[in-house]
Amino acid sequence: MKILHIVPSYLPAWRYGGPIHSVHGLCGALAAQGHEIHVFTTNVNGSTDSDVPLGIAVDIDGVQVWYFPSKCLRRLYYSPLMKGALKTRIKEFDLVHLHSVFLWPMWVAAGCARRAHVPYVIAPRGMLVAELIREKNKVIKKLSIALFDRRVLKGATAIHFTTEREKADCLALGINVSCGVVVPNGIDISEIPVNIRNSKKKNTAKPYILYFGRINWKKGIDRLIRAMQFLPEARVNIVGNDEEAYLPTLKLLAHDLGVRNQVKFHGPAKLEKKWEWITGASVLVLPSRSENFGNVVLEAMAVGVPVVVTPEVGLADTVKRSGAGIVADGNPESIATAIKKIIHDRKKAHSMSEAGRHTVETEYTWENVAGQMEEAYQGVLRTPLRE
Predict the structure, then answer these.
(1) Which is deepest, 89, 173, 208, 313, by most CB within 10 Å?
(2) What pLDDT, on the 0 to 100 scale, is given for residue 343?
């Protein structure tokens, strides 16, 4: 198949976190299966531009990536040159896969696909959650849904969800999910350094609790800091990129609660340092208020680190089913209790470690995920186009 993916930003825009990794992981895995994969994206990288060639194909792991400039309305990723390319080239492709909502490239690509009678799939990527819509830019997002996104979703031959929870979140917004397909994100185990991948021994010299990810409200980091009141003997490292100026609020909270000596804040980690942070932890905690998937949970499981997640994390069902960790309610005492069960019971922690490794290796490799996505695409091509 010849498949076009539409993504607001792409590598090397690492600052956008999990979606950048997961979309490229999927594209690379599909290319490895023999499909011809193209990506149309912008060069937007926060307030700056990625240093990439514009308007020509750049080969990244077998994926043909086309970058287009966005000079105005950058928050919407507006790019007239991308629109021109879509109009002239979209008929080349068997299908189109859109990643995100609320953004200009999705609206334009969906319209071009409909007019060219090319089927498209859309992946909301965790953005269609009622609580998140209420919390940030509520009026703008509701207008976007009414004017653009509901039409885009209605015209999609399939809606791609990464978890059943994400599908339920969309249903709660009144979106018809009958055409929904659930295909998870994956993990490239070969990216894990060999010495870490093969090691069964944990560094227990100075074990710590770890939060690893973006610093913002929805991640529930304040829940973890509050939990430290019930864990006076423990310490937590919070590692991540703060682009929403939320870090001062968290530091003040740690000070006011009297736990600032237990909580250490670190900036974003370079890719090669990520695995050192994760493997050095006794437990990884993702206490999110909303998380359509949770890539870092898979990464921790892959190297045998037990996890504690809240029910709002998309992978919560996997964590519970596999025994790779504990699903704890979002209140601080419940999170603290779950952490205690892991750090005070080595036998339980070892069992969780082995369960996590096994689950990732048997269910979440990119080869496995690409096979599932390929089946979904075949279903799309057999389905009549929606109006």
Answers:
(1) 313
(2) 95
- Whether 2-186+366-382 and 189-363 share one fold: the answer is yes
Give 200's pLDDT tier (boundaries 50, 70, 90): low
Nearest to 87 by CA among 54, 115, 63: 115
Number of Cβ within 10 Å of residue 50's Cβ equals 18
* pLDDT given at position 285: 99
Class of domain 189-363: alpha beta
Average of per-residue pLDDT across 141-146: 86
Q: pTM surpassing 0.85? A: yes
Q: Please give the pLDDT value at position 371.
A: 97
Q: What residues does each domain of the chain span?
A: 2-186+366-382, 189-363
Residue 11 has a pLDDT of 86
The whole-number pLDDT of residue 145 equals 86
